[in-house]
Amino acid sequence: MVAKHFIFLGAPGVGKGTQAQRLAQLIRLPHVSTGDMLRASVQSGSAIGVRAAAVMESGALVSDEIIIGIVAERLLLADAATGVVFDGFPRTIHQANALDDLLAGRGDQIAAVLHIELADEEIVERLSGRRVCATCGAIYHVRYHPPAVEGICDVCGGVLLQREDDQPAVIRKRLAVYQAETAPLIAYYHDRSAYHLVSGEGEADEVFSRIVKAVGVAR
Ligand code: AMP
User: Fold this and answer.
1) Average pLDDT over residues 152-158
2) How many CB atoms neighbour CB 158 within 10 A?
3) Rounded to the nearest whole angstrom, what is the distance from the C-alpha of residue 46 to the centroid of ligand 1?
4) Which of 44, 61, 83, 148 could join 4 via S-S bond, C-beta 3.0 to 4.6 A?
């Protein structure tokens, strides 16, 4: 069976994480977030975590070499055999080239590239109100998607935290980095049949319906 992978494109804050988690759950593929993997490395104090911590806090990108290495290793795990849902990868043309090579070597395909688009003002609003469960990674928003009990995760009871890089100054830097380094990926994938442009406007449920329709899976 040919493995088929999903890619989410879009600026930080458009809802990639939320939507990638939901899609992964629906189609029963692992959710592979390079940001989550890096944060876990920082927590554990591994060599990669030590190298990545300051870069992440500043809003810049971790080196392609580190990212391509962790993705290549992740794809070797048994649960990736039928495909994964990438979240936050690829983020540079170099990473996209490396992914194409990696997939060609395995005989895998890209099932869909989901490009989520949202206005800049909306992005800043979403990122500054975002809260993330320190235990299970579930994503909330203080206004649009609050937990039942303030500061506590509905799913696992973990503590909700604001990410260091969701502070206003770092948000601005991350958006600039997105424009410079990641936005060129839109042209890279645009002409492929797997490419889908999806509006990120509205509730998470509405956005998810658009994604499910674009991808053509039954709910
Ligand atoms: P995210 O959770 O996807 O917003 O990622 C948080 C931070 O981790 C980013 O601002 C980068 O510093 C780093 N990061 C995550 N994924 C990548 C990637 N594919 N390439 C480079 N840096 C990354």
Assistant:
1) 97
2) 17
3) 17
4) 83
